[in-house]
Each structure stands twice: as C-alpha cells, then as structure tokens.
C-alpha cells in the first residue's frame, strides 16, 4: 500500500474547494461557541471573530485569498438569494412599514447625510489621502453598491468593500451601547438604525439577536440606504469640493 | 421539493434583478432589485408560499455566516489600510457612532410624534 506524504496531501487539499469551505463552516461554528461562552458580547461578534481567525489561519498555512475564495464562494453566493429573501419579512410587516413610511424616509436621509458628512469631515481633518477619503465615503452602504459608488466618485472599489466590512462589525459592536445611552428599546428603531449604519452586517445581527421585526426593518434600511446613497453621495462629495 | 421550489423563486427574482440592473446600467446591485421584485410579487399574490418562506427564512437565519468569505477579503487590503491606519480607524468608529446615534434619535422622535398625533400608544409590543 502506498501512503502519500503529508505535503502531497496538502498540495491536493489546498487546491480543492472542499478545504476552505469546510474551514469556513468550522471556524464560524467555533466563533459562535466562543461568542456564547463570553456572554454574547457584540465586541467579539461571531462574524468578526471568524474573519480574524480565518485570516490568521490563511496566513499561517500561506494560502492566498483567491485560493480560499474558490471554496468559500459557495457560501458567498448565497448572499444574493438571501438579499432577495429580505422581501419576506418586509412583506410580513408591510402595514407597519406603510404607517411609518415618512419617519423612516426622513430618518434614512438624516442618517445618510450624517454618515457621509462625518466620514468626509473627520477623514479630511485627520489627513487621510484623497483615494482613502473617497473610498471611505460610501462605507455605510452594502458592499456591492459601495464598490460602484466608490468607482463613480474616484475611490478604490476593493478598498471601499473592505472598509464597508469594517464599518459593519464596528456598527454591530457600538449599536447596543448607543441604544442603551439613548434609552432606545423599540426593535423597529434598533433594527432600522443597524441596517442603515451597518448594512448587511447590521441586518444579520438584527435577525440573529433582536428578532424578525428588527430584521425586517433592518433589511428595509439597508435597501433604502443603498438606493438613496447612490443618488446623494455624488452630490455631497461635490459639495465637499471633490471631482 | 419545497426547498427547491423556494430556492428557484429566490434565484429567479435575483436573475430578473440582475437583468434589470445590467439592462438599464443602474448602480444598484441585482439582488437588491430582486428584493423589490419579490416584494411586489408577494403583494400581488397576497401571501407568502410556504416553500418560499421555508427557504427564505432558512437563509436569513444564517445571514451572518454569508458575510464571512467577503470579510476575509480584508486581508488583501492590509497595505492600503495600514497606509492610513489612524485616520481610518478614528473615522470609522466615530462616524459610525454618530450615525447610529442620529438615526436612532431621529426615528425615535418622529415615531413618538406620530403615535401621539394618531392618539395611539407607541408601537411597542
């Protein structure tokens, strides 16, 4: 019987999508366990934790992102149908959405202007380079929209996508503190706010932690913010004197 | 079969969304338009088919997991982020906090005003 050597096995496995797919699922399961063990703190959000562990793992075994993604893309692909599925909770809560339509739209406008203005203002004040600045601007928007916007206003699309993800995990970590500070308990407000400031991360967090109502409004906020920002942002950056 | 039926409906909406987005060269991603299409379809039909609910809610329950592969992509941007590390970190944290605060405050205020005007108790269960 021939026994393959360890590095022969590794060559086979590391070129196979099975490994990174399995690693992603196992690391995520582990991250959920760890998060639960430390009392479910949003500072160690399962997603943030999984990302950190997977990056460490990839650096450790010297696998590049493209190889990893070949396996992980099967999970990534499901984001599309999952986004479409957000229509279901929205439909379930359509009466409430209709009743709150104007407050929601106004809050969305206020949130977007705050997000973009404070981002550009602070980053300019702190001396970030122009490309970084313009990649930061769409950071509150779900990554596919943000990449398109960044390209349009002169940022770096892939950097914008990375900053969007960072914003998502920061938003989930800060959200509960801000809500406690402002004494906000309504799941509608919490969900909508998370979806606006932390896009899909916030929506996922709202579904997992705050329930279906918060999730529905979070998904609504994510969609609305994406749509409105695509129109508003080029105008705001022009106001700040870019392009 | 319900899982297959449900998944087909979701993918069909996404597909239609992609077609609209590409066809009209909109800056909006296909799945977001697909979400709007599905919402309109549900409103016309008047109820959520059980197969669609089974698949859709199953996917949404694991939504957090679906962000992990894209998130690992951050490793590609280490250098770009390191070049402007402090401006990026301070801006992200401060601006996200302000955005959360302003949005929550505005919505809470408007919603309070709304329910008071209609003479209803607040929308809290």
Automatic annotation (TrEMBL), chain A:
It is a multi-pass membrane protein. Keywords: Membrane, Transmembrane, Transmembrane helix. It is found in: Membrane. The keyword Transmembrane helix applies. Its main location: membrane. The chain crosses the membrane at residues 12-31, 43-61, 73-91, 103-126, 159-179, 191-208, 214-236. It holds the Pfam family LrgB. This is LrgB family protein. It comes from Halomonas rhizosphaerae.
Automatic annotation (TrEMBL), chain B:
The lineage of its organism: Bacteria, Pseudomonadati, Pseudomonadota, Gammaproteobacteria, Oceanospirillales. This is CidA/LrgA family protein. The keyword Membrane applies. Keywords: Cell membrane, Membrane, Transmembrane, Transmembrane helix. Its main location: membrane. It is a multi-pass membrane protein. It holds the Pfam family LrgA. InterPro entries: LrgA/CidA. It is found in: Cell membrane. It comes from the Bacteria. The chain crosses the membrane at residues 31-48, 60-80, 86-107.
